[in-house]
Specification:
The complex is a heterotetramer, with 2 copies of chain A and 2 copies of chain C. By secondary structure, chain A is α+β, with helices and mostly antiparallel strands. Chain A is built from 6 helices and 3 strands. Chain A has helices at 4-7, 10-17, 66-79, 84-102, 104-107, 140-163, and strands at residues 31-37, 42-51, 54-63. A 3-stranded antiparallel β-sheet of chain A has the order 1-2-3. In chain A, a hairpin with a 4-residue loop joins strand 1 (31-37) and strand 2. In chain A, helix 2 packs across helix 3, helix 3 (66-79) runs parallel beside helix 6 and helix 4 packs antiparallel against helix 6. The radius of gyration of chain A is 15 Å and the shape is globular. Chain C is of the alpha/beta class. Chain C has 2 domains: 6-50 and 310-420, Aspartate Aminotransferase, domain 1 (Alpha-Beta Complex); 56-307, Aspartate Aminotransferase, domain 2. Chain C has 15 helices and 17 strands. In chain C, the strands form 5 sheets. A 7-stranded mixed β-sheet of chain C has the order 4-10-9-8-7-5-6, sandwiched between helices. In chain C, a hairpin with a 2-residue loop joins strand 11 (269-273) and strand 12 (276-279). In chain C, helix 4 crosses helix 11, helix 5 (108-123) packs parallel to helix 6 and helix 12 runs parallel beside helix 15. Classes of the chains: A alpha+beta, C alpha/beta. At the C-D interface, helix 3, helix 4, helix 5, helix 6 and strand 11 of C face helix 3, helix 4, helix 5, helix 6 and strand 11 of D. The structure holds pyridoxal-5'-phosphate (2 copies) and FE2/S2 (inorganic) cluster (2 copies). One pyridoxal-5'-phosphate sits between chains D (107-109, 137, 139, 184, 188, 213, 215-216, 236, 238, 247, 380) and C (266, 289-290).
Amino acid sequence: MPGLEDLYREIILDHYRNPRNRGELECPPAHRYEGFNPLCGDEIVLYLDVRDEKVVDLKIAGQGCSISQSSASMMSSAVKGKTLDEARALLRAFKAMMSIHEARLDAEDRELGANGQGADGEEAPPMGDLEALQGVVKFPVRIKCATLAWNTLAQGLDGANGSAGPS
Amino acid sequence: MPGLEDLYREIILDHYRNPRNRGELECPPAHRYEGFNPLCGDEIVLYLDVRDEKVVDLKIAGQGCSISQSSASMMSSAVKGKTLDEARALLRAFKAMMSIHEARLDAEDRELGANGQGADGEEAPPMGDLEALQGVVKFPVRIKCATLAWNTLAQGLDGANGSAGPS
Amino acid sequence: MAAVDHDRAAQVGAQPLDVKAIRSDFPILDVEVNGRRLVYLDSASSSQKPRQVLDAMTRYYETTHANVHRGVYAIAEEATRQFEEARAKLARLVNARSAREIVFTKNVTEAINLVAHSWGRRNLTAGDAVLLTEMEHHANLVPWLMLAEERGIELRYIRLTADGQLDLSDLDRLVDGVKLVGVTCMSNVLGTINPVAELAEAAHSAGALFLADAAQYVPHLATDIQQLGCDFLGFTGHKMLGPTGIGCLWAREDLLEEMPPFLGGGEMISDVRLDGFLPADVPWKFEAGTPPIAEAIGLGAAVDYLTGLGMDAVRRHEVELTSYALCKLAADHPDLVIYGPADPASRGGVISLALGDIHAHDLSQVLDTAGVCVRAGHHCAKPLMRHLGVTATARASFYVYNDESDVDALSEALAEARKFFG
Amino acid sequence: MAAVDHDRAAQVGAQPLDVKAIRSDFPILDVEVNGRRLVYLDSASSSQKPRQVLDAMTRYYETTHANVHRGVYAIAEEATRQFEEARAKLARLVNARSAREIVFTKNVTEAINLVAHSWGRRNLTAGDAVLLTEMEHHANLVPWLMLAEERGIELRYIRLTADGQLDLSDLDRLVDGVKLVGVTCMSNVLGTINPVAELAEAAHSAGALFLADAAQYVPHLATDIQQLGCDFLGFTGHKMLGPTGIGCLWAREDLLEEMPPFLGGGEMISDVRLDGFLPADVPWKFEAGTPPIAEAIGLGAAVDYLTGLGMDAVRRHEVELTSYALCKLAADHPDLVIYGPADPASRGGVISLALGDIHAHDLSQVLDTAGVCVRAGHHCAKPLMRHLGVTATARASFYVYNDESDVDALSEALAEARKFFG
Ligand SMILES: Cc1ncc(COP(=O)(O)O)c(C=O)c1O
Ligand SMILES: Cc1ncc(COP(=O)(O)O)c(C=O)c1O
Ligand code: FES
Ligand code: FES
């Protein structure tokens, strides 16, 4: 039985109590993306300002539990100022860290060998504070909390791809 | 556990091997009625010739198991020559004998106090050979076999009622 | 302990429940979670099962399992007998006129879908209206939303008052011209017990039928459909000490007779040809395929268990426990928000709460480490959540095996949670 | 004993089953009927359950029951884990690409109705044709008859040859222009194993989808949906050592994605408003309400039991036993009519028979007094019965716990029956 301290690491509670990059950005130039966790009904709103293939600014609004809020806060710190490619690498690495359980439906069959590495064997970027979220995989129902902000970011990165620059 | 001899009394097997009143009657003057046992798909065809409120003749066709066939045969012997009222009394008495289980869905609630007597407390007519079918109630699935011919007769008596005489 | 006497149950002088003896019938209550005893406060989601129910099913499988209805050999006859006896027990439990009025389904959700598909598709066309309430469980919303989308029927809703009761001030207008009124007997979020008999009468006066979602009612209160005056009433086995995989629709026999079949297959036919079929008699017409046989027998044993305790005693116990909980929690936690009616006599043992700004899922997670199981989420009542202005609540709910020590454990765990996130 | 070697299973060198050891896992086989041991020959109706399956369900209820999917407390997480693990086991059993392709239903009848309602109502309109066979179980007839009545779709049928095989001489014409072909993998009356892969290919060539009713197949033969090439495949728990109250639909994920929901309620939504809803992801989109949780876990244990024996070994055992039975019964009873294919390699362990002019129900009743359980009736395949020109047959069927002594008991009991009615 995993204990509370596996889930609620000190750093997580810190990001929860003092969320970084909370707020809104003007659209345009930023874009607005919504993420929704159907399990609980919580919602995250991501404002993403991408210029010259770089995340020059981002803000987080919406509400959710401590895990989703702190994960969003950590994500915002980790991604801000990064190039789109760096952000994508981070996203892949984070999803891989979470995938052990989230992909359970697939992981149990022969299709998907989730092993915490990017599919193409690339080297994972350093995760920093984000490592603290690793404990979440022991609480399967909460994985969607941790990935909510990241799935919303994924939408944003796809969007930035599509429009290929600021709009 | 009831044994085979409770179900297949000698007299039943006799009626099964040598069915009485088997055949057809010309319609008109007779009427034709069909009875169907959805549990097994067996069917009985009853030809009923009623004149002056009396069953002057009847014949049985169709096919079914030994219980349904012998019950039909006994019914035909018991009813032939009887007045409609006598036939109805016999029908009621037979259904009451069978109702202990057939009406189980109702008997278990407060609506119906099935007690083997006509609803109005009338005296039951002598059952003769038909008593042999009493053992069937110990085999609930077979009750519909025993009552098949009688339910068909009921249609016929209702029909005779409706047209009030030969047609 | 603050005994409450408003309730009918209390007045008929039901014996208090011997909770200690009851607890010993529930093996799961001996389980330890994180080294603490299991404090199970999620019976509104699904109740635990007594030995008697588990034994009835195991005994059935070990001695007489066979497919029902068609076999002439002894164990098949016995299986059929036990299965149909379970139906009769359920009929008696809700005071049905006949066991033919009980249709076995897989859960109450299927029961309501059955009504929407079979009665609804036969009787509702574009422009017809159905009246529901804002506090319905998704089970009594989505089937009608699907029908609305497919058929263009109109859905109306009874709104809620500030303290979580149905706002009936507008009922006459709302009910005017509707064909069906569908209402939960008791809210699975707020605990509110709705005035079912009154609503059924209003429905009938307006020429509408009345469907009761009794998923939270039949397990907890003596249910008399004659007195409630419903036309359809659905409930579900796993919330009333029974197994998963079984639910019930009670419906007036004449309605069942007129309704077309729902699912097609074996058991529900009296004849099949390559170009058509004849349905069987009620209730089997609505039970396509092999039914949940062991589950029906298990549910029958659950009914025996509940009637052994006495439904009035069950209700009295829950009124008392809820009363204690409302007092105790409010006293211990001034910052605690408790949703729903304040009077224990007009509510069931379901308490939705919010502690400061701690998210319901975080709260539930922390309570779990103290062995206290409460549900966090929207409780399949998202429109009600929107009405309350929240996405989720934490919900504690009681049943026959809970007592004051469970409430005390909840209260202590809430204090721990406040400290943790403070 | 006449070993038969035509079968693939036999060729891969499966170990013979240790029937004695297997029998000791089935408590019901120790029951006595009329002072005789129970000779259970009705597994095609419903199989018996091993200890391992009953224990898995009891253990679940006694240690970790809670409603699945939404709870964040430990026992609810564990319940969810076990429930979804059962889904994964079923996916592996039929070689699905992903557990998302497995939808839990209450029986295979519901699985087929799900396809008819959800896929059918979306994709079939008046004049569209569906091709079935004359040997279908009512479960794969009535849903389509209902749709035909409602929608005016055309139903075509593959007829049968004299020895109870599908008559494929006309297949090209029959399949031309149809949208769906629905076929039983194995007849529950004749035992005929149909050429599913070939039929699926013919369906696909004609632009149709292929639905397999595998209720009698998955329990008895290694099932590989990739190799069979189906689009939908349904089967039912209680015929494969699992509990009542659960069935499965396997379907291609892209088809499930496109299909509208079937029943509406909790679990199957991702959002509900008073004016609409959003369905959840597959497979949950099709699982409205509390699912059969304990039943899924029990079925998972049944899968473990079967794969422990090895499906090839199961098949080999049944081929050998059927072969023995066909020889023995024909030798002992020259007046016995046995329906269906003569070659044990192209049929399952299902033997429909008629003894002289003794009615099937009388026969079954008399066999019962010798402890021999066989099913009498139309076996939910009335069109097939009409084809055979009978209203009922007596049917003996085998499973892993049967052996030659059961066949011997059947043969002796048939002799007694002949004497009784002679
Ligand atoms: C071929 C076939 N299809 C469908 C069914 C129906 O199964 P169930 O009653 O479990 O839905 C059966 C079993 O009776 C069967 O043999
Ligand atoms: C009021 C109400 N209706 C319907 C349901 C649905 O019950 P089930 O999931 O057993 O169909 C529930 C339980 O979740 C409920 O509380
Ligand atoms: S509970 Fe909603 S995001 Fe965590
Ligand atoms: S079995 Fe058909 S009438 Fe008896």
